Amino acid sequence: MDYKKVFYAPFSTDDIGLYVRSANGVKAFTIASKNPKKEADNLVKLLNDDGGTKYSKVFLIDGTKILTSEASMLVARGWGHLMGAESLNTDEALQTQNDFIDWVIGKIGG
After folding, report:
1. How far apart are CA 22 and CA 110, in angstroms?
2. Which of 40, 63, 87, 104 is the S-S candidate for 17 at Cβ 3.0 to 4.6 Å?
3. Would the pTM count as exceeding 0.90?
4. Rounded distance, CA 88 to CA 106, Å?
């Protein structure tokens, strides 16, 4: 499945910056950071092409966690939605999530 059918702009965050969601309400990331609201706001700006500061370094860990140069961890979400609401099999869900993560890394890395 094309990840753009599930994860698409405008992305948004909640009041405390714990989650970043796609326009359809699907959780895209959980933010683990010293200042999650700041990191979530920056991520949303970058993903929405609305400014933001790109990270000088971005590392993929365990296939679902993005570590940034700001020592923030972005944990990919949406697995339950892909397997449940979208009825994808494990391989399709994994490929869809991986494609989305690759796109995100390209958007946020400097």
Report:
1. 22
2. 40
3. yes
4. 25
- Six-digit token string for 73: 């961890």
Contacts of 95 (CB under 8 A, 6+ apart): 1
Q: How far apart are the first and last CA of the chain?
A: 28
Give the pair of three-digit tokens for residue 13. Answer: 């965050």
- Tokens standing for 11? 């992305």
Residue-wise DSSP of the chain: --GGGTS-SSPEE-TTSSEEE-TTS-EEEEEESSSHHHHHHHHHHHHTTS----BS-EEEETTTEEEETTS-EEEE--HHHHHTTT---HHHHHHHHHHHHHHHHHHHB-
The predicted-structure confidence for 26-48, as pLDDT tens digits, reads as follows 999 999 999 999 999 999 999 99
